[in-house]
Design goal:
heterodimer, A: alpha/beta, Rossmann fold, 2 domains, 11% strand, B: alpha/beta, four-stranded mixed sheet, globular
Chain lengths: 248, 478
């Protein structure tokens, strides 16, 4: 029932899609747009954005990171809400941008990982999604430990119609991606990934859900190599799926 | 300096190569997985019992930071107090000097054998090997150190040095080796923990009763009274610290705390973080010498060996807060799979990856590879009882190694620079993305070349989309 009060002004957010999603997983960017728009949010995509600089920074190239930090900060100037479907990139901005000085610190409090924005800012856990599959959730390390996402992703998943959420054993253990770690220490990385996959398979789930596509690039790449009966799917893709337009 | 630092680890390959062998060793993987998960879970329960854990962690961090800021003052105060209590203090700038001092002190007693309490500092300087070369036998008396010594092996964990061994392997080592070091293992020794412990007890007892010289490290040194503290579980430490006539303690300078009050924090956080106990079975404290009991001659060797270099580094110095609990090893997914030996140092795991390159520098293959031996998952920082931000220090040390430019880092920097240029020019980036998408049908699942090969050995490359997100946006929303 509508009230006499004026409607809330439409909330406007900037989508910080991340370089990995832009180039490799655009469907996750599209899914994020669909979920936000379905909830009445107006989404902008500032085209000047590219990469937050995390891979360069974590590999020890601070000087080479600085121009990307400046570019990212400029790209999102003037937006009160910058939303990203990546806990890791959100953590880069929140925890490390201040160390680059200048305007960089100002972006940190305006960046929200998708589940933070949905649960904390919009106050929503049921986004009207439909996903009739058995799903297990891997909380990626940066979302888990640097952002403290806690139960937010699980609460969103639990509200999805048709979705059966099953517990992932050893959920809080790293999947072994770790950015350039995956190529600098390929054997340890693969051993960690293999254990993550074995745990996920033991649940009988059809879908291994995560909120960071870089981790899913690694785990998913191992799953397809093995031909395992399990698909790695981003949380946004699940939340965007509806009965009218189901995920495929 | 690497030739005088932990001699047994000299010439180690870089971490990734050493780890590759460990990852392929099924027995080792099973031993490590079982042991780390058991300790990890017990620790979590022990820590959860305390409502004020966060406050204790913060207090421990602050006590250590405050002490390190005025380290020289506290050490001078400690020297004064130890001297007043009848002990003698020696200052050792590096491993060679410490080894020389200790050898001289043992020689002066006329003895050719010593018993040792488990001590990381003496392993760090390669004291046993140095003493052996000088004709002095050093007997390790900690059960796990005994297993490592008899097996002519290297420790692979700070707290449980023989974590890579299972019961069957330990029984075989005892049966084969005990006889050549002293009292042999009992006939028909089984692999039950009680039988193995009894064999060690009988073997060690004759060494305790015969030894005239004991060598230890220390967990803490209290500056105000000159008191040293050793925290242990087995009681072998208590024997070594009280039975011999001469006691020599080799301790890193960062182990000093100003007052007894400070111990209140660490004696709660250390046992819960390390062995998951509310209180450790034996806490030995001694202040100089006394006429009634214990050693009549006490020497304290204060060891620098790279610590003041670490102290000079504003980001890296937090590694000196470490109280050697090894909680970070037990939660580390990399340590669990690579094992301790791959780290090429007596300090393995996450703390070793930030401590060793600071103490030894990043000259050798293995030392330069250590800052990269982490996925930066942050589990170590979460459990550290003195809040060492290990991921932050790892990235800081990566900056140092990259700046030195060796081992392909010049090439890597050029590649990173090129990628940063593209990422700073969205038009060029979009053009690259479009070419990649347009040619996607031609992309193989495996690629040759540095980086790509390491990736595609274990994982398929992703199937690229028909268009990048930015093009979808242009078509649909703009």
């Amino acid at each position: 029932m509508r009230t006499e009060e004026p409607e809330d002004p439409v909330m406007r957010v900037a989508l910080f899609v991340t370089c990995v999603n832009d180039a490799v997983f655009p469907a996750t960017g599209v899914a994020t747009v669909r979920v936000l728009e379905r909830l009445g949010v107006e989404v902008d995509f500032p085209a000047a954005q590219t990469c937050c600089g995390q891979p360069q920074f974590n590999t020890g190239y601070r000087a080479e990171t600085a121009p990307l930090v400046r570019r990212t900060v400029r790209a999102f100037e003037g937006y009160a809400y910058v939303v990203t479907p990546s806990g890791s990139c959100a953590a880069m901005v929140r925890h490390h941008y201040a160390s680059f000085g200048g305007e960089a610190a100002g972006l940190a409090p305006r960046v929200y990982e998708l589940t933070e924005f949905l649960v904390d800012v919009l106050g929503v856990t049921d986004v009207g999604a439909y996903f009739p599959h058995r799903v297990t959730y891997h909380p990626s390390c940066h979302g888990l430990r640097l952002l403290g996402l806690g139960e937010r992703p699980r609460r969103l998943l639990e509200a999805v119609k048709g979705l059966e959420l099953v517990e992932l054993p050893g959920a809080e253990e790293c999947c072994g991606f770790g950015g350039t770690f995956a190529v600098k220490n390929p054997d340890v990385s693969a051993a960690m990934g293999a254990d993550k996959i074995a745990n996920a398979l033991s649940t009988g789930a059809e879908v291994l859900c995560g909120a960071d596509n870089s981790c899913l690039l690694h785990v998913g790449g191992m799953l397809t190599r093995q031909g395992a009966p399990l698909r790695a799917v981003h949380l946004a893709d699940i939340l965007a799926s509806t009965e009218e337009e189901p995920w495929r | 300096m690497s030739d005088t630092f932990g001699g047994t680890f000299v010439g180690m390959p870089a971490f990734p190569e050493a780890a590759r062998a460990a990852v392929g060793d099924a027995t080792l993987r099973a031993n490590l997985r079982h042991a780390t998960h058991t300790i990890r879970d017990k620790r979590a329960r022990a820590v959860a019992e305390l409502d004020d854990w966060a406050e204790l962690r913060q207090a421990g961090k602050e006590i250590k930071d405050r002490t390190l800021r005025h380290l020289a003052d506290h050490l001078l105060r400690l020297e004064e107090a130890v001297t007043a209590a009848g002990g003698t203090v020696h200052w050792a700038a590096d491993a060679a000097e410490a080894n020389r001092i200790v050898t001289g002190l043992v020689r002066a007693t006329g003895e050719t054998e010593v018993v040792k309490v488990k001590s990381m500092a003496t392993q760090e300087i390669g004291l046993n090997e140095h003493l052996a070369a000088e004709g002095i036998a050093a007997y390790e008396t900690d059960l796990a150190e005994l297993i490592v010594q008899l097996g002519e092996d290297r420790p692979s964990h700070i707290l449980v040095p023989a974590i890579h061994r299972n019961r069957g392997e330990i029984r075989d080592i005892f049966r084969e080796k005990m006889g050549s070091w002293g009292r042999p293992a009992p006939e028909g020794l089984s692999d039950t923990p009680a039988d193995l412990a009894e064999a060690a007890r009988l073997h060690l007892r004759e060494k305790f009763l015969r030894a005239k010289v004991g060598i230890s490290g220390a967990n803490f040194m209290v500056a105000e009274t000159g008191t040293l503290v050793v925290v242990e579980s087995e009681g072998n430490g208590r024997m070594c610290l009280t039975l011999p006539e001469t006691l020599i303690s080799v301790v890193g300078v960062e182990k000093v705390v100003p007052t007894w009050r400070d111990l209140e924090v660490f004696l709660q956080t250390l046992p819960r973080s390390s062995t998951a106990e509310r209180m450790n079975p034996y806490t030995s404290m001694w202040t100089g010498t006394s006429d009634d009991d214990g050693p009549s001659d006490f020497h304290l060797v204060l060891l620098d060996n790279g610590r003041t270099d670490a102290l000079a580094d504003e980001v890296g110095r937090q590694a000196l807060r470490c109280i050697r609990c090894s909680a970070c090893l037990n939660v580390c997914p990399v340590y669990e799979r690579a094992g301790g030996h791959a780290y090429g140092s007596v300090y393995p795991g996450p703390i070793g990856a930030i401590l060793t390159p600071q103490l030894r520098g990043t000259v050798s293959e293995v030392d330069a590879s250590l800052p990269y031996a982490s996925s930066l998952c942050g589990a170590c920082y979460e459990v550290c009882p003195v809040a060492i931000d290990i991921p932050k220090v790892l990235v800081h040390l990566r900056e140092r190694v990259a700046a030195e430019g060796g081992r392909g880092h010049r090439l890597e920097r050029a590649a990173i620079k090129a990628s940063s240029w593209v990422l700073d020019h969205p038009t060029a980036l979009a053009a690259g993305e479009r070419i990649a998408s347009a040619t996607r049908a031609l992309h193989p699942k495996r690629l040759p070349g540095p980086g790509a090969r390491q990736w595609s050995e274990h994982r398929n490359l992703p199937e690229l989309p028909a268009e990048p997100f930015r093009d979808w946006w242009k078509r649909n929303r703009r």
